[in-house]
Amino acid sequence: MTQPSFPPLFTSLSANGSDPFALACAQAQAVCDAGLVVYDITHAQLRAAIVFAPEVPLRDAASMLPLCGVGFQNALGALAPPEVGVHLGWGGRLYLNGGHCGALQIAASEQDPDTIPDWLVIGLTLDLWPPSDDTGLTPDDTALYAEGCGEVDPVLLLEAWVRHSLVELNSWVDDGPARLHRNWSGLAHGLDAEITVAGQTGIFIGLDESLGLLLKTPTETRLIPLTALLTEPS
Q1: Which of 142, 151, 182, 194 has its CA 20 to 30 A from that of 92?
Q2: 131 close to 146: Cβ distance less than 8 angstroms
Q3: Is 153 helix (H, G, I), strand (E, B) or coil?
Q4: CATH code: domain of residue 97
Q5: pLDDT tens digit string along 21-52?
Q6: Boundaries of each DUF4444 domain copy (predicted)?
């Protein structure tokens, strides 16, 4: 497999079959430099993770999750046929032509939303091929190559994801969250439908200014912050 090439200040590390997200968290805990990209690409799956070093409180830094989702859509949009639709679930799930095909996840050194974390990691998992030839068994799930993207090289897709996420990051730093809010909202999966996120169920009616989820229940409208999606580092 060709070694991926990333923009300056990014470095790469092959996970050699282990979980890139867990390895990136371990590297971050050991005080690696920001910009480390850990990856593992097999016949069936692309997995990767990026280490960030935020300079803002966790409540704002958690925007890296939707930001990397927009980066993924832009990356695949540049490589895939134009008829392939990419949408993003607020909880991190990725959808191709309406089918679930992977997910993003987030971990950080802190859980306190008001604290600036020492590090933050965003992980990406993308199914390249379905686990079974009998896709009728899992009609809600799909994979990259099952959706007309057979010419997409996973290494080039990984490179493009990092590049496009960097573009989104620079815009977010310079201009604030308005552009990200607008771009992510245009890709939202499940808007105006019932969803279950972070143990809560309701109608997904939109985002607040910090990209928190607005969830309408029979009795109230609840705000679920992005920090509710944090997972414990492995």
Answers
A1: 151
A2: no
A3: coil
A4: 3.30.930.10
A5: 999 999 999 999 999 999 999 999 999 999 99
A6: 194-232
